[in-house]
Design a protein that fits this description.
It is a single chain. The chain is an alpha/beta fold. 43% of the residues lie in helices and 12% in strands. It contains 6 helices and 4 strands; from the N terminus they run ααβαβαβαβα. The protein has a 4-stranded parallel beta sheet, with helices on both faces. 32% of the residues are buried.
Length: 186
């Protein structure tokens, strides 16, 4: 881009075939059979097969961003919490923190401060009166847990979009997320 806000980049989009399998790292107990909990395998595929393929066949740089919406946003949050992740930055768009909220909080507690060298942008959409409690407050709690654990190294931004809903927030969140991730400190 000639505007010098963000560098040129390669965008790889993976069509989803089973979001509960690929975007969740825990398997919730349900009465119905389910394929939940394959997120670690999906991330392993991206890091061990897809990224090496991209690096071999295209002119790449080691700066990588993982972005996801809803359960994909939850996957981005989970990847952010892994210190050894190949990703440097994350955009979590209206992440489904509700999925396994207790496990997410436990993971934050076990994070190393080194993990906070990475940046994460979290966008929260307006989901109505009931959604404020269910959605916005959960995202705010997650960010406060990050702040407590980060020991001053936190590079997290949370934005609430009052005029956007779960379906409309991705476009503005990608734009604002990229601006945050590439913001230089003066």
């Amino acid at each position: 881009l000639r505007n010098r806000i963000i560098p040129e980049m390669i965008i790889v989009a993976i069509e989803n075939v089973d979001r509960e399998r690929d975007f969740t790292v825990t398997k919730l107990k349900t009465k119905r059979e389910n394929t939940m909990g394959g997120g670690k395998n999906f991330l392993a595929f991206i890091e061990n097969e897809l990224i090496p393929h991209m690096d071999k066949n295209y002119k790449t740089e080691p700066h990588r961003i993982l972005a996801g919406h809803s359960l994909g946003g939850q996957l981005a949050v989970n990847a952010f919490m892994v210190e050894t992740s190949l990703f440097n930055a994350f955009i979590a768009i209206d992440p489904s923190i509700w999925w396994d909220e207790k496990t997410t909080a436990e993971k934050v507690d076990s994070m190393q401060t080194e993990a906070f060298k990475k940046r994460i942008y979290i966008a929260t959409a307006n989901q109505g009166e009931a959604g404020i409690e269910r959605n916005k407050k959960r995202h705010e709690l997650l960010v406060s847990l990050f702040a407590k654990k980060a020991e001053g190294k936190q590079q997290v931004q949370l934005d609430y979009y009052d005029n956007e809903n779960h379906r409309s927030v991705p476009l503005i969140a990608i734009y604002e997320g990229l601006k945050f991730l590439y913001k230089t400190e003066n």
